[in-house]
Specification:
The complex is a heterodimer of chains A (about 110) and B (about 110). With about 110 residues, chain A is mainly β. Chain A has no helices and ten strands. In chain A, strands 1, 3, 4, 8, 9 and 10 form a six-stranded mixed sheet that branches. A four-stranded antiparallel sheet of chain A has the order 2-7-6-5, with no helix packed on it. In chain A, a hairpin with a 4-residue loop joins strand 6 and strand 7. Chain A starts with 9 loop residues before the first strand and ends with a strand. Chain B is an all-beta fold and about 110 residues long. In chain B, about 0% of the residues lie in helices and about 55% in strands. Chain B has no helices and eleven strands. Chain B has strands at about 5, 10-15, 20-25, 30-40, 40-50, 55, 65-70, 75-80, 85-95, 105, 110-114. In chain B, strands 2, 4, 5, 6, 9, 10 and 11 form a seven-stranded mixed sheet that branches. In chain B, strands 1-3-8-7 form a four-stranded antiparallel sheet, with no helix packed on it. Chain B is globular, with a radius of gyration of 13 Å. Chain B starts with a strand and ends with a strand. The chains are: A mainly beta (about 110), B mainly beta (about 110).
């Protein structure tokens, strides 16, 4: 929603630069991770996912990196565009967790022309 | 495309009122979820349902109840609304036929309790 980003860490980037959004997850048993994007006034939308048996996965202009040793996840956006401005959430899930996702607090990405 | 709709985008209710938030999905998904979203806290799970007439408490169920009488519809009920329930409410659904955990979200209902 409109006020989601008010109290979030903000990453400001110039249009055309690469963006890196970081996330620390909590459960070492988590075996699946998702990145969501939430634009103002909309619900979260799926961007990319990765399973715990992978270190890296690439999509269109986005790459997710997983470091299980330090329980860290990152989302890299190449050639950031104004349309990428949004709040980004990471989420984790683990088998047997009734398909529940546990969401991070989110990071607001602001892209400046 | 999966479509998840919520009955209202904005809602204003008075303290003590009974509030119904409705969510409908059109993809025959088994699982449905209700979250609330507050600044700086991310999405917190209130209740979820893994099939018709089944429900499970999430992380913050106090003050809420749910109903899942039909597969496509999942209702969130605030029995007696309080000001601390002012929030953005998001509904989501997921197919158990999918091997991934992706949930599809509705646009949200911004509820204000005065």
């Amino acid at each position: 929603g409109e006020s989601v980003g008010l109290h979030l860490p903000t990453l400001s980037v110039q249009e055309g630069d690469n963006s890196i959004i970081n996330c620390a997850y909590s459960n070492s048993a988590s075996d699946y991770f998702i990145w969501y994007k939430q634009e103002s006034g909309k619900g979260p939308q799926f961007i990319i996912d990765i399973r715990s048996n992978m270190d890296k996965r690439q999509g269109q202009r986005v790459t997710v990196l997983l470091n299980k040793t330090v329980k860290h996840l990152s989302l890299q956006i190449a050639a950031t565009q104004p349309g990428d401005s949004a709040v980004y959430f990471c989420a984790e899930a683990f088998s047997g967790g009734y398909n529940k996702l546990i969401f991070g607090a989110g990071t607001r990405l602001a892209v400046h022309p | 495309d999966v479509k998840v709709t919520q009955s209202s985008r904005y809602l204003v209710k008075r303290t003590g009122e009974k509030v119904f938030l409705e969510c409908v999905q059109d993809m025959d998904h088994e699982n449905m979820f209700w979250y609330r979203q507050d600044p700086g806290l991310g999405l917190r799970l209130i209740y979820f349902s893994y099939d018709v007439k089944m429900k499970e408490k999430g992380d913050i169920p106090e003050g809420y109840s749910v109903s899942r009488e039909k597969k496509e519809r999942f209702s969130l009920i605030l029995e007696s609304a309080s000001t601390n329930q002012t929030s953005m409410y998001l509904c989501a659904s997921r197919s158990t036929r999918s091997s991934i955990y992706e949930q599809y979200f509705g646009p949200g209902t911004r509820l204000t309790v005065t």
